[in-house]
Amino acid sequence: MKQPGTFRLALGALALAALLPLTASAQAFVGGRPPGGNGLKVGNGRLHPTLELETRLDSGVGYFREAGTGPLSPDLSGELALHVRPGLMLDVPSPKLAVALRGNLDYVAYTGLLTAGSGAASHLEGAADLALRFNQESELSFEVGDELTRSDRTRTAALGAGILSLFNEARVKAQWKPGGGALEVTPALAYAMEFFEPLGGMTPIGCTDAACDPLAASQFNYGNLRLGAEGRWRFLPKTAVVVDTGLQYRGYFNDTTTPSAAILHAMAGVSGLISPRITLTAKAGWSQNLGSGGGGTVVGQVEGTYLVGPSLTVKGGYLRAFQPVAAYGTFRDDRVYAEGRTVMGSRLALHATGALDFLSFAGGRGDTLVTLDLGPEYQIRPWLVGAVGYMLGTRSSSLGAAGLNYTRHEGYARVSVSY
């Protein structure tokens, strides 16, 4: 598949970033840090090399012709994929300048055992994240960072399956805590870009809209500027009033039909402990598109966390968001979600997360998404962790194209080594 020049440059940046002292950040280890090993001393910090080997049986890799030249399958093709993820982690603590780097390269090899011809779509994925934190213990502190990800999980809700996404966001924010710290004000600025290319190189059957066609996805490459400020006032020791305001502008590099969006939002509410075991956040407000497409809606979030026991936490809530999106300009997301995590003994961790999203796009299109992720993770040795799991992704759309109506099952087994 031929890649645009911009995509090749950005992919090169990803490979370069992964050579820095970074590590895999996609999965958390038992206890939230790499197991065992002292790493390599770097200043006041430690550098931890890591390696993950994963086998994944995926029912929805992409769209391929049967036997390479046969008829196009109406459904996503399945495949057994092998993942090799070398990575690094570096943490250098300091009250003046703290450094946190995470990153990995992920080579995804399609075996061709289930779908002939899929091996040609084997590709490189990866993730990198950098955070530089200045004067963390001062009244006024700053953070500068950058996140870079290449994955087959696009952040653009309107697009269908079978797409590779390259996403990068540079960010800077400050935190001001005057007086004793009861008041916190956090202004932030971020600029993101996302580029797309097809995975498999075929148009799904029944697709007559650019949003469901992987071959047309690159027309929706975009830039997104976010300006925002959050405020928090603790009127009680463990309870605060929160205010969240911001403006984001979305423009498209190659698309002249999707209207640009400039969305202003403002929310306010409370957050804190309502009992020794229950934490609650509740905020609401309004989002308005100041761009030519117009539109606005009530937005908000209600989220609760319950500490069932010393090692079991359950979290759930409801979120309504109004965001810019490719092909339609804006969309509304009504999400119900839940998550549970527990540690049994000192080595076994279990997790289960699920969400139900109702997406409403400008122009009348509506989608429903169901996602599920569950499985155990076991620390075999201080430097060795094994994990198995199952992921479910189901999407149904008012548009009848196969690329927007599918069910994706994924089962995986992973071994993670860390020094």
From TrEMBL:
<feature type="signal peptide">
    <location>
        <begin position="1"/>
        <end position="28"/>
    </location>
</feature>
<protein>
    <submittedName>
        <fullName>Uncharacterized protein</fullName>
    </submittedName>
</protein>
<keyword id="KW-0732">Signal</keyword>
